[in-house]
Amino acid sequence: MRVTGTGHASMRIDTPAGSILCDPWVNPAYFASWFPFPDNSQLDWAALGDVDYLYVSHLHRDHFDAAHLKRYVSKRATVLLPAFPTSEMENELRELGFTRFLKAPNEEVVDLGGGLKVMIQALTSPTDGPIGDSSLWVEHDGVRLLNQNDARPTDLSVFTELGHVHAHMLQFSGAIWYPMVYELPNAAKTAFGKQKRERQFDRTWRYIDDLKADHVFPIAGPPCFLDDALWQFNDIHGDEGNIFPDQSVFLEEYAKVGGTNGVVLLPGSVAEVTADGCETTHPVPVAEFFANKVAHLEEMRERKRPIIAAEKASWRHPEIDVLGEMQRRIEPLLNESIYLAKGVGGPVRFDLVDGDDAGTETVESIVVDFPGKQVRPYADEKVRYRFRTERALIEHLLHIGEVDWVNSLFLSCRFSAARIGQYNEFVYAFFKCLSQERLQYAEGWYDEHERAVDAEDITLGDWVVQRRCPHLKADLSRFGIVADDQLTCQLHGWRFDLASGRCLTSVGHKIRAQRADEETPAPVIETTT
């Protein structure tokens, strides 16, 4: 099995029975804030895109590059389609010209012929990507590969049961806006960033240990930030709280926990994976490339300046009445929302400014009032969340009818945020569900989990707790760690106070717990939103 690195989470898998191109991403994403690094724009994409199969793990724009898919990927390719709850991915791919689809049943092996087999595991909670994320398992002639990309399954046993895996591709770096955009003292940002960076690596080590593959490939990040306004997010400034470590840092950290089987793929690297080993060739020496990272980034920044400038010029739509359009689009969804609106539980404010200067004066403040089910001008009340961003970005989202403000505005990091109290997942869940189809699915998912009762318990240290994490049902017998009467679920880093059952990370999501030496079980605390 030959694996060609094509950048970020992208790779081409070649076997005698067929070729698969995974997640090709080249063009900037999220308001031209994210770029692939190392740069992959100069690869021979016409040749790389001439494949038998296309696999796109999910709709995040650093995995689903519509312009690139349309221009470079053969429309004769059969799309390996995850079993997502909505038809959005298929619809978007059909609009790009793809006509052949293999709708893979979830977690079922599909024989493609010639000894080539695949299986796709689809994750379908409202917090998994833009309504869904997935992993691809591939086997040919006894050689097995798992492309986990940035999916976060609670259990990898469905893959280990199919036989020993020889190549494991997975995310290790950050892919979010926290904590950089929050209006916090620098010391607090560094502390929170350091904690998140450590959690990212801990989660990666857990997945690696679960699968026990012969070779581990760090992929799916980090992006690079080439706009001058975002340049500080690159991990080149000696900031221990930076959440975007690169592949060379992965190898260093992996060695500290005994890892010796890491393999880095640069764009153009080729790994020949067999049951007996992995031989990899690179276009340039890996260590030398990352030793010159700053120079590569600076050269790339200058080369991409015209692209960023052209993107920025397209955002302004002053003809749009932002308040009126937000009312027209969002109020019907608020009226239909039960679980998400209740979960947010208060007003969310958008402060709109002209220009990207953080000190620019606010020109309009708009409140999305979840209890009141309306969008209205800010009335000087307290709000749970406040977002500050360029008016042009909101104008653009409304102009193009964007249904997912998470997979656009928030991932761009082109905003600042403040909040009262704990993180609230329902805020971001709602703003990625600005369509009837997405909202109805999310409401149904939360309704199902609200009604579910997890009766199975496990013992962790001195405590008996419910086996499944109240957040996204991770198996706490594998991901749970208890220290100082607090439980941490390592899958997403959520923490719980065991004495009270209270979630310390977000609102709601109480856990059922009691001390192991208690004779009478503590009252059951049902999972709530």
UniProtKB/TrEMBL annotation:
Keyword Transmembrane: no
Record-linked SUPFAM superfamilies: ISP domain (SSF50022), Metallo-hydrolase/oxidoreductase (SSF56281)
Keyword field: 2Fe-2S, Iron, Iron-sulfur, Metal-binding
Gene Ontology molecular function terms on file: 2 iron, 2 sulfur cluster binding; metal ion binding; monooxygenase activity; oxidoreductase activity, acting on paired donors, with incorporation or reduction of molecular oxygen
UniProt xrefs under PROSITE patterns: RIESKE
Transcription recorded as keyword: no
Protein name: Rieske (2Fe-2S) domain protein
Pfam families reported for this sequence: Rieske, SCP2_Rv3818
Domain Rieske residues, every copy: 464-525
